[in-house]
Fold this sequence. Notes:
By secondary structure, the chain is of the alpha+beta class. Helices cover 27% and strands 25% of the residues.
Amino acid sequence: MQIEFKENYNIKTHTTFKIGGVVNKVWFPKNQQELVFLLKDLKDYILLGNCSNVLVSSNGYKGNVILTTEMKNFEINGNRVIADCGVKGPLLAQKTCENSLSGFEFMIGFPGTIGGEIYMNASCHGQSISDNLVRCCLFDKQKKEIVYKEKKEMDFEYRKSILQCGKYVLLGAEFELKKVAKEEIQSLLDRNLGFRKEVQPSLAHPNAGSVFKNPPNDSAGRLLDKAGVKEFNFDNVEVWSKHANFIVNKGNASSEDVLELMVKMFETVKERFTIELVPEIIFIGNKSKKEEELCKILYKKTQK
């Protein structure tokens, strides 16, 4: 099977952070059949979508990376939506609006793919990706076969799903949305976009979305703001002035620059409130010695 790939690929051109080094080989499957072939054939790989909530090491990655962003197939039948893992959330939000289907309005401001959003059970504005999910088509990495799981089997919690156990890879998903007047849906899309523009940096200011998860019954942004982290401004990175839970690449940042700022934010909140924030941004790649030390502080047991 001929699947598009590139060798010695500079991954930073693909990440929303505009940070990352050279990857030995990057694969671009166009459909579920090609993705399954790669998952069966490759012994070692990292699977990524739009790279909108990841920090890739500036040292790169000496292995295979599979990018799903060419997997753009989706269909809308009545109030049912079936989408490949690589379909971008904003596109699906717009297309379902055109079909008077409600449930994806929150995705209009997310640059991520369906796969990434199910992986982390993305949510915002009172909606989450799991709300309207019916079932998922998965690849079982141990059995090397395609399996299906209903919503109740996906172990959804806040920023969590069964995909994080590492046993499964999402190939596609089926949703059931609600019929609502198109004008109502468009109004909600406009409101959500307006909110994002007001308090969150656009991708013109390279970032990877929320830096830390919200702790139980609180907001990471509130804690960071009260701790005064908006004043943190390094040579190559800074905390976004309108929302304290975002880090912006000022143009020439390295992964180490971001990790150092994350650690300072983490330790400031811990000292002020005795709360240890958990990173929402996922770190990927070959760590430098300094990055090893920084990741031990930030990720502890939440990430290898």
